[in-house]
Design a protein that fits this description.
The protein is built from 20 helices and 20 strands. The chain binds alpha-D-glucopyranuronic acid.
């Protein structure tokens, strides 16, 4: 598993810039850690040793005390009252002799200047104080050069913070950034930074586009967990701290994960993730008391059911003391839930939460709830309204350890959707946003589609829930409402293919997800730049070329597929490739209503489904009015004639033609751009991507011709430029 494909962004390629090498070498010859090195700290130290060996050609020695005047010092910032001890937080007899202070003073800290103590050689060591309390996952990374000393000081709010700092330092070295004057202070902006696997025990992955599961094969957990460990590493390197390891649709075998032999298998996996500071969650079957407990009901208000879950949870915590909790898809797409017993989502979630509460476990309850048996003739029911209609009335009714998980948009991970109106509408309920890194509706990792710009638009959206500047990122970041729990979750895009993600460039989505969740203020471009350097090296042509391709890719994908926010023109079930009417007369609530005169869904309050009214003012008015509704969402909110003139000055029909012609051309352009980088990227990865891009270009033409032809036939309006339509 040591290929460049496999290493993703942890290439740790040899650094050729001699200047960079010369600066780092003396600084990191020694890694100083006072105290026992175990758990997450051991993972951090091992990563530093291996990364440095691979990039700079020597393995730093790990010592308890520095023997010279230069070193990389790792330490944990001990909170008030905690024992002063080594970085691992474990007692160590050498601490008092150590030249540097292993833990900072009680909080809050002030800039009281350097502490001077005496090093093993009798020279003074000066360690500056951090200027404010560090959260557990935060870290500071300082370059200290004073007198004869020259050291790097990495301080974590916990061992996990040290690990995140170690990955940060390794990133700096990879990117050729010199440490001179380094003064970094990082704290993740989201507490829960989660990945959801949609893996099934039979080894298949629901909406998986990169091979089979790395967790399961033929109904069992894999025995060799090396690949799982490498997955934990790559997730931890971006700051991910939680994972659910089975599909939200919990089938028969997976229902048993919470008990017996299978629970012990789950515990083995939990141990792997624990080493990287990642908490393990399971998706559970709400009807488990019936399916595996032998009870006749799963009614959340039934005492027998409550007792059954309490016993199950107790067994889980015996096997996995730091178990994260449950992820639940209930009363959605035929999954069981509280509705069968006349109970609501709060009754269901609270019952599980009560069982988990004594152990600090969480219930993450999904809001992806709608009527999937709708009659297409019924024009009053609007699937987009469903999550809000179900959950808004329950605000404040959930226990403190319940978090609602809300998809970014009101439908289902389309290329373009408005932001879910639930954000900000539940001021008394913990919430996380759910993204989909897996490219279900965005080209299935056969097409290039870098999704960070899409996620950023969502996170930056101002809900106006508390007036201006109530952005989604601040709501889920927990800074606008006092939620005890909040953050971000996303459906993973990995499988057992050598390069994890099928399309090698789709690795950027997984990397970008973690980095964006760590800091939503990073730009999509900065993240793309980072990823490219770590993955393919720092050659300026590669960095500019790949970053440019990534940044253009979502707009290009949108342009040759779904126009103006309409969505759903895809092949039913597989969701790959065009089928304009595939979902038009189905039960799924997914319609575009195209006829000979026009297209789009009227979701206004005035004449449509009223969905637009679920937003706060002035967003409601913005979407409600044709005059202010943004072009890219026009057909999501309005039904308009093909001759309707957009803000761009084009008619809807001409926009459809133009975007489809240019989109397909630009997809072809990717092939050329990539070809231009042939001599700067290793053959295997170059060929892998080239193959995908060629197919994308072909498939984009198919999309173009199907969509253009469909709308030409419907409308009878010719293309102004007379290009070929069939
Ligand atoms: C989509 C997807 C399903 C998935 C569902 C969910 O509808 O196509 O495969 O189960 O989302 O998020 O639960």
């Amino acid at each position: 598993g040591g290929s460049a494909l496999y290493k993703a962004w942890l290439q740790y390629a040899k650094v050729n810039d001699s200047e960079v090498c010369e600066v780092y070498k003396p600084l990191i010859q020694q890694i100083v850690v006072a105290g026992r090195i175990e758990g997450v700290l051991a993972a951090a130290v091992a990563e530093l040793q291996e990364g440095i060996r691979s990039m700079l050609g020597f393995t730093p020695e790990v010592v308890q005390e520095p023997t010279g005047t230069s070193c990389l010092l790792l330490q944990v910032n001990k909170p008030e009252g905690a024992e002063t001890a080594g970085a691992a937080g474990e007692g160590s007899g050498t601490v008092s002799k150590l030249a540097v202070q292993p833990g900072f003073d009680p909080l809050p800290m002030s800039e009281t200047g350097p502490i001077s103590q005496t090093s093993a050689q009798g020279k003074p060591w000066r360690v500056p104080k951090a200027s404010a309390a560090l959260e557990a996952d935060g870290f500071t990374l300082l370059h200290v050069r004073e007198g004869g000393e020259n050291c790097l000081l990495l301080t974590g709010g916990s061992a996990r913070g040290v690990m995140y700092g170690a990955f940060h330092l390794l990133r700096l070295i990879s990117m050729g950034i010199c440490p001179e004057g380094l003064n970094v202070r990082e704290c993740p902006r989201n507490r829960l930074r989660m990945i959801n696997q949609w893996d099934n025990a039979d080894g298949s992955i629901e909406r998986g586009y990169a091979g089979r599961s790395i967790f399961y094969r033929d109904g069992s957990m894999v025995t060799d967990l090396q690949r799982v460990k490498d997955y934990a590493r790559i997730l931890a390197s971006t700051g991910i701290n939680a994972i659910s390891i089975n599909n939200v649709n919990v089938h028969e075998v997976e229902t048993h994960f919470i008990t017996g032999e299978l629970l012990l298998d789950v515990a083995r996996v939990a141990a792997v993730f624990r080493e990287y500071g990642i908490a393990l969650f399971l998706s559970v079957n709400f009807a488990a008391p019936i399916a595996i407990g032998g009870l006749s009901t799963a009614d959340p208000l039934d005492r027998g059911v409550q007792a059954w879950w309490k016993t199950a949870v107790q067994q889980i915590y015996t096997a996995i003391p730091d178990f994260g909790g449950f992820l639940v898809k209930a009363d959605s797409e035929h999954r069981p839930g509280p509705f069968a017993y006349g109970r609501d989502h709060a009754d269901g979630a609270n019952m599980l939460a009560e069982a988990l509460e004594p152990y600090g476990g969480l219930v993450i309850w999904r809001c992806f709830v709608y009527n999937c048996m709708q009659d297409w003739r019924d024009r009053r029911t609007d699937r987009a309204r469903a999550a809000y209609d179900h959950f808004k009335p329950l605000d404040g009714k959930f226990r403190d350890n319940v978090i609602l998980q809300i998809k970014n948009g009101p439908m289902d991970f389309q290329v373009r959707e408005p932001v879910s109106p639930l954000f900000g509408a539940l001021p008394h309920t913990n919430q996380v946003i759910e993204f989909q890194v897996a490219q279900e509706y965005t080209g299935q990792q056969r097409h290039l589609c870098y999704l960070v710009p899409q996620w950023k638009q969502v996170l930056d959206f101002d809900t106006y829930a508390l007036g201006p500047e109530t952005r989604v990122k601040d709501i889920v970041g927990g800074s606008r409402f006092p939620f005890p729990h909040s953050g971000v979750a996303a459906v993973s895009n990995i499988g057992d293919e050598e390069n994890w993600t099928g399309h090698t460039l789709a690795q950027a989505n997984l990397y970008g997800y973690g980095r964006l969740v760590w800091n939503p203020d990073l730009s999509a471009e900065a993240i793309a730049d980072e990823w490219t350097r770590l993955t393919f090296g720092n050659h300026p042509a590669v960095v500019a070329g790949v970053t440019g391709m990534l940044m253009k890719s979502w707009p290009i994908y949108e342009s040759y597929t779904a126009p103006l926010g309409v969505g759903w023109m895809v092949t039913p079930h597989t969701h790959y490739g065009p089928d304009v009417d595939g979902y038009e007369y189905s039960r799924w609530g997914t319609y575009h209503f195209a006829d000979r005169d026009g297209i789009g869904v009227d979701r206004t309050k005035r004449s449509g489904t009223g969905y637009a009214a679920q937003y706060f003012s002035p967003n409601t008015e913005m979407f409600e009015s044709l005059g202010t509704c943004p072009d890219e969402l026009l057909l999501f909110f309005h039904h308009v004639p093909y001759s309707h003139v957009l803000h761009s000055g084009k008619t809807v029909i001409q926009h459809i033609y133009d975007t489809h012609f240019t989109g397909a051309e630009e997809a072809e352009g990717f092939v050329q751009s990539w070809e231009g980088l042939r001599d700067k990227i290793d053959d295997i990865r170059h060929a892998q991507v080239a193959g995908r891009l060629a197919k994308q270009a072909e498939h984009a033409k198919h999309w173009r011709d199907v969509i253009n032809t469909y709308f030409y036939r419907k409308s009878g309006i010719p293309d102004e430029q007379g290009r070929t339509i069939y």
